[in-house]
Queue: 4 jobs
Job 1
Amino acid sequence: MTTTDLPDLSDIDLTDASVWEQAAPHHWLDRLRTESPVHWHEESDGPGFWTITRHEHVRRVSTSPLEFSNWVGGPTRLEPESMDQVRMIIIGMDPPEHRAFRNIVAKAFTPKMIGQLEESLRAETARVVGALRDRNSCDFVTDVAALIPMWSISELMGVPESDRFRLYELSHALIDDQDPEVAPTAETSMNASVEIFGYANEMAARERANPTGSLTSMLLEAEVDGQKLTDMEYTLFFMFLIVAGNETTRTASSHGLHTLLQHPDAWARLADDPSLMPGAVEEILRWEPPIHHFRRTATADTTIGDQAIAEGDKVLMWYAGSNRDPAVFDDPHTFRIDRSPNPQQSFGIGEHFCLGANLARLSLRLLFTELLGTIENVELEAPPRRLHSNLINGIKEMQIRYDVR
Ligand code: HEM
């Protein structure tokens, strides 16, 4: 579709998951960024929202957590019925409460702590990717991309091996509930959350009996204002970490391979020069942000750029738009693994900046290094099957064939 196919900006519907299922609608996002960077977007199931697509505006909103709240309306477009529970999760909190809860786990995600995981993560990545040698085709999503983040977050949380795959399936059903194939009914994701709740309680009992120093025991031992977390606060924190750890890195891994297959020159350069890997990972994240958008709600009358925003208005930050802002990125629609600087916003920015960013970056570097050394002549057997969602930029299945090096 060209921009001339769109007579009116009001025809743009960013709430339509079937649009995102095809690919991020860059022709729309570009038009909005240029013609209406802070754009009022109607919605059939709510009061409407502001949509922002400029890098500077995403920075402005994300770095002003008291003006643009996660607590008031949650981080997603529609307020869930369980808003009280969302407010007990760090992504649904504002400062100063947010900081206190974030600090409980922040020390587990520092570069030093993640560095300590590097050797075992490298070994696990080599094991998963090494299994590709036994055949010449696979579903990259379930056979590779899903397994490594599932391993990392389970190691951190102390989840035993026998339970990991089930927890991964549950987190998928919970967060990817816009897709009828993943969550055919509302009960599917409800049942998933009930099962994760039950599991979190079993983990608590085990960790209390035998503390392992895992993230789970950190949650159980933590105090905020001299008080231990309530059972509900602990359970929701546990669930959020499992979901956050599994979903996004799997998505970035799948999109990373897909993008490199579409840019064989980049694959060849990376194979020749491993020093390009950190930059390639940043560019993969810029190119296909694993999360399409997050939401904030204005706590008072304010402005974004020249646009007046009223107290209570919702604002949706579209990372796929801000990551291709020509004011910040030269030639933004070109995939360049040596792009520098690359201030991509796929991990968010400011108060809620992704806690798992160090882990995700390491994981992606190890994965692509291992893949380049293990397989070649990689081709898609069919177009990737993408998730029906305007929140998560997921890939459900990506069948590939390849030669073993
Ligand atoms: C490529 C992988 C990942 C991407 C793209 C990603 C993206 C994001 C984004 C966009 C946010 C919200 C930022 C904001 O609102 O400004 C976030 C928050 C968060 N992420 Fe990630 N994430 C990834 C991997 C991970 C992993 C592996 C973990 C590990 C558990 C994790 C844990 C979290 C947590 C705990 C938060 C909430 C932080 C807060 O509210 O203070 N993420 N992530």
Job 2
Amino acid sequence: MASGFRGEVATYYARHRRGYPPEVLDALATAFGLGGDDTVIDLGCGTGQLSIPLAARVRAVVGVDPEPDMLALARQAAVDAATTNTAWVLGADRDVPTLGHLLGERTIGALTVAVAIHFMDRDALFRTIRPLVRPGGGVAVITNGVPLWSQDTRWSEALRGCLERLVGRPVTATCDTDAAGRRRNRNALVRAGYRYAESVVQYDAPLTIEDMVGGVFSAIPAELLPSAADRATFTAEVRDALDGRDAVTERVRVWLQFGTAHVPAR
Ligand SMILES: C[S@@+](CC[C@H](N)C(=O)[O-])C[C@H]1O[C@@H](n2cnc3c(N)ncnc32)[C@H](O)[C@@H]1O
């Protein structure tokens, strides 16, 4: 069930991946009318980037992930943020029916899947979660920008060059953040009978070289992480390729795709 996000990779993830701005949480809350009575399942919660701020808006968030190291860091982040309404469950998309037995039918306001849908069987997931969702609630599939090495900027191109030299092959992974991935999400939500809507939150933010390099190492499966010496060489190469700059500006586009469970007619 493990997916490679463990050990140092998990630490890089917690330290260097972006969280979500309040506008993303507003969009989620508005889409499903989320409030103080709602429980949300954040599937593929990682180190809690979305689960923890979301918990401030609802009754409780259940963060689910197959990687114990990611969950341990999420739990610690919740403690550090004095968040007391999160629970952390070791599991994966195929464990959703078990969660159904635990929580009961029509009990959740939303299932969120942020930067993790590419690991899951969409059709099965959207179908099996449906009985657990209260009317007007639903499923949100979220991307947090696109991978740092695949953006349409000079700094991203330079990073991609360094990364390709490090791994010795072209790097093309989009993690389903592209239009084709979003189309697959939309089609699967519609097939499962949800009403579909989408929105984008866009902002510019600084990206330090440290976060850029840490972001790359947070995306490499633990067993393929380079040696400490190769990581240092890579960091120096990235710095050179960016002409010694300490930071660049990243345009982050957060796509939110909503599938709403219909409210029954009175
Ligand atoms: C890129 S991280 C996303 C973390 C977080 N949601 C965020 O927005 O930053 C992907 C997460 O999905 C988890 N994952 C991988 N396969 C999964 C599966 N089949 N079911 C649930 N989560 C999975 C990984 O362990 C990892 O923590």
Job 3
Amino acid sequence: MKLYGSYTSPYVRHCRVALAQSSFDYEFVEADYAMSAENSPTAKVPYFIDGELMLTDSSSILKYIREKSGQVFLADIKDFDSFALATTLLDATVNLFLIENNGFGPDQISYLGRQRNRIESGLKELNERFHPDQSIELDSTLRCLCFIDWALFRKRISLDGLTNLQGLLNTANRVEAFSGTAPPA
Ligand SMILES: N[C@@H](CCC(=O)N[C@@H](CS)C(=O)NCC(=O)O)C(=O)O
């Protein structure tokens, strides 16, 4: 098994945590923009190869790792919805980060204001749905954690007043599979 990605990507991190929670041996290969553009149709990371199988999205990679190791992947519908919600917020935050780094913000592109509001309202909803002792074996919890830890790392969000999310992050940081995959300082 080979997982291609970067040490900062939250999507890649989620796959690294799932692999750490499995018993599989795998190789992590660092892939930059040029390499992902050459090898993946989405030009994104992560992508993953196991023999003849090539996967191009963190969700399919997670499903594969979980099911191959006898675990379940998002079997519960509410769990699935929370995974999807956290992914929508992560996608919006990554998108906004990249576009703002290119010199554009809500003053130039009004849709970016909608993205910003979505992140704010979505974080409040995540704070309602998750509590500090939520299992980090669940992919909804892990997606939420990979999102908020990356967004804090990039200084894109604040957890002020979001005490459940702050408590959940504190709990997760005591677990090696999560803390050991943190973005490099
Ligand atoms: N839906 C994809 C999203 C992956 C993604 O957006 N990866 C970012 C890194 S955090 C990327 O490769 N971005 C490169 C680009 O946008 O060109 C997944 O879940 O794997």
Job 4
Amino acid sequence: MKVLRPTSRNEALDMLADDPSIRPIAGGTDLMVSWHHHDKTGWTLMDLSRVDDLNTMSMDDHALQLGALTSYWDVIASKDVTNAFPLLTVAARQVGAIQIQTRGTWAGNIANGSPAADGVPVMMAYNAIVHLQSRTESTDVPLDQYFTGYKQSVRKPDQLIVGITMPRTSHDHEWFHKVGARSAQAITKVGVAMVKNGSGWRVVANSVAPFVCRCKRLESALNDGQSFATPADVADILKHDIAPIDDIRSTARYRQTVLARLIHAHINE
Ligand SMILES: Cc1cc2nc3c(=O)[nH]c(=O)nc-3n(C[C@H](O)[C@H](O)[C@H](O)COP(=O)(O)OP(=O)(O)OC[C@H]3O[C@@H](n4cnc5c(N)ncnc54)[C@H](O)[C@@H]3O)c2cc1C
């Protein structure tokens, strides 16, 4: 196994262009977990940690920009970002423990493509744009159009996620809830982020489909002012938005029922 250590973005993009089979490594908190499951003969890793211009976070009146190396802790530690985008910090505090929050990156959470990712729902609810770059082109993709299947995305092998942008708008309402087997250090069985601003509701759920997804039918119903007397009424709409499965952590029925109950309880608070 070989490890490349670029010191600039262009050097990293050149390396990827020359060999798209190279695996970028940011915090390593996903890549190292699956380490023992792979035969790494022939692997080339590209350690991004020395690429300073990917390690940036900035916010102005219009938007928040996260670099590819922005960690959960960078967001938790920023009062300004937490005030403007509270759900980012709410979700970040529930990702693993502090060790993971200081190493794990928001971009890695997206790139890893897990349907259980906790950073993705809040970013998607905040209308995030993913910036992809290769040696020859730059592309911006709305996060809600980034995933194409289980662990599949529109990212081409020679592209890096170089940053994520979230527009600053005032939010009338924002909420994130994660259900796991215990209150910390647990992989999500069901999760939901809900944000309402001038353009309406965004409802994003994780662990209930092959990838983190918006619940667009439910969003439309909420935007139309529909009320839901019981959790079953929410579930009736949600069934068009989600496709949960049985796995070692939970059952499809549990995920569907709990998601509907959570949303029903929350919107009728
Ligand atoms: C103990 C533990 C607990 C955890 N708990 C949670 C949790 O509660 N919730 C949760 O969502 N996750 C959790 N995770 C998973 C992980 O911490 C997050 O998904 C994290 O955001 C991954 O970021 P990273 O920088 O460490 O990614 P890495 O491991 O470095 O990379 C992950 C994948 O993304 C690719 N990649 C990384 N950066 C880029 C880039 N810029 N461009 C293109 N590809 C890239 C890598 O090649 C790799 O395939 C946990 C992990 C551990 C070990």
